[in-house]
Specification:
Blueprint lengths: L3 E5 L3 H13 L3 E6 L2 H10 L4 E5 L8 H8 L7 E5 L4 H8 L5 E4 L4 H18 L1 H5 L3 E4 L2 E4 L5 E4 L2 E3 L3 H13 L4 E2 H8 L7 H14 L5 E4 L3 E4 L2
Parallel strand pairs: 1-2, 1-3, 3-4, 4-5
Antiparallel strand pairs: 6-7, 7-8, 8-9, 10-12, 11-12
């Protein structure tokens, strides 16, 4: 299987050297980008198999922030690259569940083995999920209920927050019927009152992750699955 790598590295010489090394090792390189916004766009336009992510990007968000935001809409294995290995940095990186961590400078063998092990570890851990019977939501979107609700675009899991998952649960239970905003609010925030903007933001965020193809909103009334 071809392994496609996205390089996110703001040091031009390091990035070019990485690309050259990866190509010699037989990997494909989808893109070389230097900052947060370009990394997001690259993942959306040409999804890689794995990402080499420099932690210390010279942009509005660092590599850990970038990884966090990528995983909000697609689950991709990420290997962090850094010249720093302090406890605080590692602790932040661990929260994004990376498949590898390379301390600069690293050699070709370390790079190759980390990519191979990270790629196969990620895919082997998801074999059981991929073999589950997927239930169709809409177009190329599917879901499974075990061990808890998971939503997929084709066979790639979409990363959902707890409240986004709860919103999907109540809409799936309604099976295409309209669910009122008040019912959604009570289901998710049963123990407290929230503002209209909080609910609107949650619905908007989830609809965005699903590319507006799964959930329909009816102003002042509620929302439903598009079936």
């Amino acid at each position: 299987m071809d392994i496609k790598v996205l390089i996110v590295e703001d040091e031009a010489i390091v990035a070019l050297d990485l690309k050259s090394t990866l190509l010699k090792l037989g990997f494909k390189v989808t893109n070389v980008v230097t900052k947060y916004k370009d990394a997001i766009k690259s993942v959306q336009s040409n999804t890689p198999s794995i990402i080499l992510m420099d932690i210390n990007l010279n942009s509005e968000k660092d590599g850990i922030d970038t990884a966090t935001d990528i995983k909000k809409f697609i689950n991709i294995p990420i290997i962090f690259l850094t010249a720093f290995s302090d406890d605080e940095t590692i602790s932040r990186a661990i929260k994004t569940d990376p498949v590898g961590y390379l301390i600069k400078p690293f050699n070709t063998e370390e790079l190759k083995s980390t990519i191979m092990l990270g790629f196969y570890k990620f895919n082997n851990e998801n074999i059981e999920e991929k073999e589950l019977k997927l239930i169709k939501l809409s177009s190329d979107y599917f879901y499974t209920k075990e061990p808890h609700l998971k939503v997929y675009y084709k066979q790639k899991e979409i990363s959902l927050t707890q409240k986004e998952r709860m919103l999907m649960e109540i809409l799936i239970q309604a099976n295409g019927q309209i669910v009122s905003f008040s019912s959604i609010e009570h289901y998710i925030w049963y123990d407290k009152v929230v503002s209209d903007s909080t609910l609107r933001t949650l619905i908007y965020r989830l609809r965005t992750k699903l590319d507006y193809k799964v959930i329909e909103t009816l102003p002042t009334i509620g929302c439903k699955l598009i079936v």
